[in-house]
Amino acid sequence: MKILVGVVPDASGSDAMALAGVLSRSLGGDVLIAHVYAAPSAQSGKRKVDAEWVAYLRADAEAVVADAAEAAPRYGLTQFETAVHGHKSSGVGLDELAQRIGADMIVIGSAPGASNGRFLIGSTADQLLHGSHVPVAVAPAGYRRVHPDVLGRLVVAFQDTTESHKALEWAAEHRGDRRLTALTVLLRHRVMGSNLAFDGEGLVSRQLEEDARVALGAALRALDTDADSELTIGDDASSAMGRVQWHGDELLVLASGGSVLRRVFLGDMTYKLVRATPVPAIVLPRHT
Can you tell me the distance from the alpha carbon of 127 to that of 115, in angstroms, rounded to the nearest whole number? Predict the structure, then answer.
């Protein structure tokens, strides 16, 4: 496995390296530390490109990578390669570099402003989470301070879709000797009105919960491996995820949805879970 970790000159770059180190030790694989600088596109038209400015941007990118390489051993990264890549869009540039080197996944940190333990989707993450050809792993803010040595559990967000079944298969293939959990998240939809309305809401919720448990059981039987299941319910994704007992050594595995392309594409629930998860997550491309 080859892991491409995108770094920037702030704390989120360290969070990404910490996650890359955990994934490398847990799943095996080589690490490439890279930074994408804002190079002009080949379709710049007749506008003159300042060669000195481009050279400055590249030199600055090389300095960013050099600083990251110096800090990498703090996160257990002792053997790795480095690279810089020019592209006008950082997320697209990382995906382009991943395809060029044959990377199996891209690791990034949160956008600035995220609360500790949460991931904020910025422009780079948005581009990758709606177009990457390979899985994208996201490190929550502050992960550099609380990361485990290795993963202890893979948790697959399961919705009884084709892509979720494939995500469960991916996790089973990469679990090693770690625990595997299929997690279904159900969101309540509050109804305003009479007691009768709330009674009806309760009936619907109980039926959804029963259906979800049946689907979970069937999925795990079909997988034919040692795994457990869990179902959590909340008024929103954050409250539902807050009811799950997390130990900090998990990786949340999420399936893409919505697009017909073999790329990462966030569906509505996946988007909510990326923002609500207190542990790192990896989003798989469709048809993984």
Answer: 21
Pairing of strands 281-284, 136-139: antiparallel
Asked if 141 and 200 sit in the same domain, the reply is no
Helix ranges (H only) for the chain are: 11-27, 51-71, 90-101, 123-128, 143-146, 162-174, 195-223, 237-242, 268-276
Contacts of 71 (CB under 8 A, 6+ apart): 14, 17
Tell me: do 9 and 136 sit in the same domain. yes
User: How many domains, the chain?
Assistant: 2
What are the CA-CA distances from residue 134 to residues 87, 121, 222 (Å)? 18, 18, 26
Same domain membership, residue 247 and residue 185: yes
Name the residue among 164, 285, 178, 279 with its Cα closest to residue 223. Answer: 164
121-167 pLDDT, tens digit each: 999 999 999 999 999 999 999 999 999 999 999 999 998 889 999 99
Tokens of 82: 């480095």
Looking at the DSSP assignment, which residues form a beta bridge with residue 36? 85
Q: What is the pTM of this model?
A: 0.90
Main-chain dihedrals φ then ψ at residue 120, nearest 5 degrees: -110, 125
